[in-house]
Amino acid sequence: MSEALEFAPSSAALLEPYLPPASSQSTVSKPFVTLTFATSLDSSLSLAPGVRTRLSGPRSKAMTHYLRSRHSAILIGINTMLADDPGLNCRISGASSQPRPIIIDPHLRWTPKRSDKVLQISRDGQGLAPIVLTAVQAGKWPENSVSVLTEHGGKLIHVEPKKATSSGGSRFDWHDILAVLSQEGLSSLMVEGGAQIINSLLDSQYHSLVDSVIVTIAPTWLGEGGVVVSPARAHDEQGVPIPAARLSDVKWHPFGEDVVLCGRLDKK
Ligand SMILES: NC(=O)c1ccc[n+]([C@@H]2O[C@H](COP(=O)([O-])OP(=O)(O)OC[C@H]3O[C@@H](n4cnc5c(N)ncnc54)[C@H](O)[C@@H]3O)[C@@H](O)[C@H]2O)c1
Ligand SMILES: Nc1nc(=O)c(N)c(NC[C@H](O)[C@H](O)[C@H](O)COP(=O)(O)O)[nH]1
Fold first, then answer.
1. ipTM score of the complex?
2. Which of 74, 86, 144, 179 is deepest in the core (most CB within 10 A)?
3. Contact 73, 30 (CB under 8 A)
């Protein structure tokens, strides 16, 4: 169905200090959280909302798939789901485990169809069916969405939103998202994007939840109008602007023409 990727053990060793422990614990209070994405030099994830844009070269792409093999779940926002029709599986040859896809879809904009790539892949035994986290109450879930997801081994879970955006959208608290994933027995989570998901997790109130950050930087500028990672401004007690987030414990590793930045968020 799709190409098998190779990732050398020597490259894997470089990432090890930033990855969840290999032995998975059966009960965890909070999943190990890795924030990971591919960005351009102007901090864009894609050319425009809804446009799938290849940034990673073959070696950093294989790196991302290796990360997928090392986490029990992979999380994306609904815009990414609708824009990319992603597979959300690990395509490293001989991968011993597959991550559980988690889709953040507060208003149930996704109508699951058997032709969606993530569902085809789960039918083929090449990956797992998604869990969709939604603000919609169980009694209001479309029957067809429930049956298509259930048929594949996926499901919907209600999460109570904690705040609303200026445009009336519901926002979850990341503590609540992680609590649900712990209850599902998922001990590690790779947050893959898109930009709204990443920007919301980079809010200073959530820095203590993020265990590591692994960013692929591609040698390209996407230009104005891109989907940009740029978290909300932070301020000190006097109201003076301060950096929104900073990494320490930083390592830079070239992978082909890209560079992969590993670090840990400074806790506020
Ligand atoms: N380069 C990369 O690594 C990468 C990774 C992922 C996605 N992408 C690209 O990013 C683009 C999509 O990004 P985007 O920013 O438009 O959308 P997104 O994927 O971040 O989804 C945004 C939606 O997710 C929901 N959401 C986000 N945070 C939430 C929260 N805290 N609580 C509840 N709901 C929340 C909201 O409904 C919001 O409208 C696509 O073009 C995709 O191709 C690139
Ligand atoms: N690492 C990375 N490099 C990229 O150049 C790129 N565009 C993404 N984008 C991440 C986003 O989540 C996509 O939707 C999935 O990468 C698609 O997932 P599949 O490959 O179909 O499994 N991620």
1. 0.98
2. 74
3. no
